[in-house]
């Protein structure tokens, strides 16, 4: 198994990349708005995040703690947003590859 490199090293390496790529900034620039909803199911709480892109497409992320006693709204929102945001990466990567391929 290889050792993991630090986040700072990854950022330095990415800054040297010159080919087109998807970045956090490029994704954030395409976000129109986002909202959160908390649903209680029995003792459990689920936080759902809806991210609407400028073109109207919506990504949905969710988060829930394993133990209801550990629920914290701000943590649920953070994890739910991150879950939805990660989904955008794959779609944006696909769109960029299509553009680069001339399709």
Low-confidence stretches: none
Write down the Rg: 17 Å
The pLDDT mean sits at 91
Helix content: 40-55%
Q: What does the largest sheet look like?
A: 3 strands, antiparallel
Number of DSSP strand runs? 3
Q: Output the helix-strand order.
A: HHEEEH
Distance between the termini: 38 Å
| Strand percent estimate | 25-35%
Description of the structure:
By secondary structure, the protein is α+β, with helices and mostly antiparallel strands. It is built from three helices and three strands; from the N terminus they run ααβββα. It has helices at 7-15, 24-28, 73-100, and strands at residues 31-41, 44-53, 58-63. The chain has a three-stranded antiparallel sheet. It starts with 6 loop residues before the first helix and ends with a helix. The relative contact order is 0.15.
Helices and strands in order:
Layout: H1 7-15, H2 24-28, E1 31-41, E2 44-53, E3 58-63, H3 73-100
Antiparallel strand pairs: 1-2, 2-3
Provide a compact summary of the structure:
The chain has helices at 7-15, 24-28, 73-100; strands at residues 31-41, 44-53, 58-63. Strands 1-2-3 form a three-stranded antiparallel sheet.
Give the tags.
103 residues, alpha+beta, three-stranded antiparallel beta sheet, 3 helices
């Amino acid at each position: 198994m290889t050792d993991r490199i630090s986040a700072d090293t990854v950022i330095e390496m990415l800054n040297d990349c010159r080919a087109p790529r998807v970045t956090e900034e490029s994704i954030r620039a395409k976000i129109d708005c986002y909202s959160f909803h908390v649903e209680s199911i029995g003792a459990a709480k689920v936080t759902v995040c809806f991210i609407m892109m400028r073109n109207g497409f919506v990504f949905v992320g969710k988060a829930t703690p394993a133990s209801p006693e550990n629920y914290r709204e701000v943590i649920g929102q953070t994890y739910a947003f991150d879950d939805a945001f990660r989904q955008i990466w794959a779609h944006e990567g696909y769109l960029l590859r299509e553009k680069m391929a001339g399709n």
